[in-house]
Amino acid sequence: MKTKFLLSTMIITIAFASCKKGDTGPAGPNGATGATGNANVQSLTFNIDSTQWVADSAGLQWGATYTLPAATNVSGGVFLYVQDDNNWAALPHVDYGITLEFNYDPATKIVEVQSADARASVMIPNPPSMTFKVVIIPPAIARQNPNVNMGNYREVKAAFNLSN
Questions:
Q1: What domain range includes position 132?
Q2: Is residue 67 included in any domain, yes or no?
Q3: In a domain, 31, yes or no
Q4: In the chain, how many domains are there?
Q5: Cis peptide before 92 (omega within 30 of 0)
Q6: pLDDT in tens, the chain (164 residues)
């Protein structure tokens, strides 16, 4: 029995030891070039209706919130732009003495927008309906694009190939 086992082991060892890897063949043809992507940069647009603005208790500013969709992957910089005629202006933004600024809570995915008198001394009228665009840029992608002016939506759109 030992002899059969030893003989079988030797045959298997010789068989495997005598095997060698074949020659490497030539490289295959290059595939077609794909479309330029946006490197996981996300962009979405949302509206805040005039009825959604709520005055703060001090009576000096208005606030409204928007919760990003649950599927939004938020890891990196969050940039907010407000539609100003046919342009997108980065927040914080001051226009005719009225300031717009925002906070973002990554734990809840809530974007909070505030609107107030730029001097913070008087209450402004209820803000109108506004359209906002949020752009989320992963840290590694932002580091690869250090010369993009994040305050200029046209530059951001071109640099990250955003569709809108």
A1: 42-159
A2: yes
A3: no
A4: 1
A5: yes
A6: 555 544 455 555 555 555 566 677 788 788 776 555 565 888 999 999 999 999 988 888 999 999 988 777 777 889 999 998 889 999 998 888 889 999 888 888 889 999 888 877 888 888 999 999 999 999 888 888 899 999 999 999 999 999 87
